[in-house]
Amino acid sequence: MAQQKESVVTPERFESGMTYEQYKGHIKRNAEKFQFNYEATKISPEDAAALKALAAKDNGPAKLLVLGEDWCPDVFRGLPVLARIAEAAGLNLRVFPRDDNPDIMNEFLNHGESQSIPTAVFYTRDHRYIAHWIERPAKANAELGDIQKLFEGLDREKDADRELMKQRYDDFQRGPTWGSWREETVREIRELLESNTR
Question: Where are the domains of the chain?
C-alpha cells in the first residue's frame, strides 16, 4: 500500500496528536465502551513478543497514528485494541479526530473512496510509512449480518422495540462475537506488520 509522496503527516504533525490518555479525556460519547473494550483486550505473550521484535527492527514500527470518532462502534471497539498493541510493542501512539483532520483522512481512504474509521497508520522511528489498516477485521465484515439478526421482528417505530434493540446491541457488544473481532484485529495487525517489515 503506497502512501502519497508528499504526506501531510510530518513528524511535527504526528507529535501534535493526542496520546491515548489525552484522547480519553477528549471523549464525549461512549467512554464506558472505550474502557470496556480496553479492559477486555488481552495481548497474548506470544503476540506481545512478536510485536516487540517487529518494533526492534530498523524498518519496524515505532509510531502509530489513529484516526477516529467517539460515536463510531468500530472506533470504540478498535481504538482500545490499537492502544493495547501500541503498549505491547512500545509504539508512540497519537490519535486524531477524523472530522478535524480531513487532509490526513484523505490520504488513507478506504478503497480510495470512504472515510472509514478507525484508520491506523504505522511509521518507522524516522517517520517512514510502513502500512495502514482500516476500520475492522475481515472476520467482522463477514459477520456483520449477525447484527441485523438481533433486530429481526422488531419495529423501530415502537418505543419498547427500540429499547429492546438497544439492549440487544449492547449485549452483543459485550459478547463473544464482538470479542473475537478484537482478537482478529490483533492478529491482522501483527500479520500486516510482519509482511511489511521483512
Answer: 11-136+190-196
d(CA 197, CA 190): 11
Question: Cα-atom radius of gyration of the chain, to the nearest Å?
Answer: 17
Q: Is 50 exceeded by the pLDDT of residue 98?
A: yes
- Report the alpha-carbon distance of residue 62 to residue 90 in Å, rounded: 7
Amino acid at the residue 58: D
Question: Grid cell 491482522 — which residue?
Answer: 188
Fold of 11-136+190-196: Glutaredoxin (3.40.30)
pLDDT at position 151, please? Answer: 87
What confidence score (pLDDT) does residue 25 get?
95
Separation of CA 3 from chain center: 19
| Cα–Cα distance measured from residue 189 to residue 122, given in angstroms and rounded to the nearest whole number | 10
**Residue 3 scores a pLDDT above 90:** no
The residue-averaged pLDDT of 119-139 equals: 96
Give 118: exposed, middle or buried? Use CB within 10 Å, 0-12, 13-18, 19+.
Answer: buried
- Taking a C-beta distance cutoff of 8 angstroms, is the pair 93, 83 a contact? yes
Span 156-181, mean pLDDT? 90
